[in-house]
Automatic annotation (TrEMBL):
Residues 1-37 form the Response regulatory domain. GO terms for molecular function: DNA binding. The lineage of its organism: Bacteria, Pseudomonadati, Pseudomonadota, Gammaproteobacteria, Lysobacterales. It comes from Pseudoxanthomonas gei. This is DNA-binding response regulator. Keywords: DNA-binding. It comes from the Bacteria. PROSITE patterns: HTH_LUXR_2, RESPONSE_REGULATORY.
Length: 127
């Protein structure tokens, strides 16, 4: 359903062997199924990073560390700091420290601003 880079990254990190967006055509869906059946990982053609010459392509949150980006995504989805901590297995104090660092790096003042930035960057669905 979602094709934002962080959603894809999160699914693959959780162990998904394939990721296909709902816009994929029938031929691509068949390719994906066959690829996963062979034990290989499949990523939707439209979601694949650009060729290696582009050094992995642009990150959607280049200002943040991987952990901060993970916290950002959960906060942008409306999770509380306590729920973020539980979800990713850190203590509340660490989660608050990550949120503080995110606010400073992105010049944000509230979770509302964080959610709006997530929507503008296409990381969470606009509602």
């Amino acid at each position: 359903m979602h094709d934002g880079a962080l959603y894809v990254q999160e699914a693959l990190a959780a162990g998904a062997m394939g990721y296909v967006s709902k816009r994929a055509g029938p031929d691509e869906l068949i390719d994906a199924i066959r690829t996963v059946q062979r034990g290989e990982q499949y990523l939707d053609r439209a979601l694949r990073p650009p060729p290696a010459s582009d050094a992995g392509g642009p990150q959607l949150l280049p200002e943040l560390t991987d952990r901060e980006a993970q916290v950002f995504l959960l906060l942008a989805r409306g999770h509380s700091v306590a729920r973020v901590a539980t979800t990713i297995g850190i203590n509340n104090k660490t989660a608050y420290a990550h949120r503080s660092s995110i606010y400073a790096k992105l010049k944000l003042a509230s979770d509302h601003e964080l959610r709006m930035l997530g929507k503008r960057r296409g990381l969470v669905a606009a509602s």
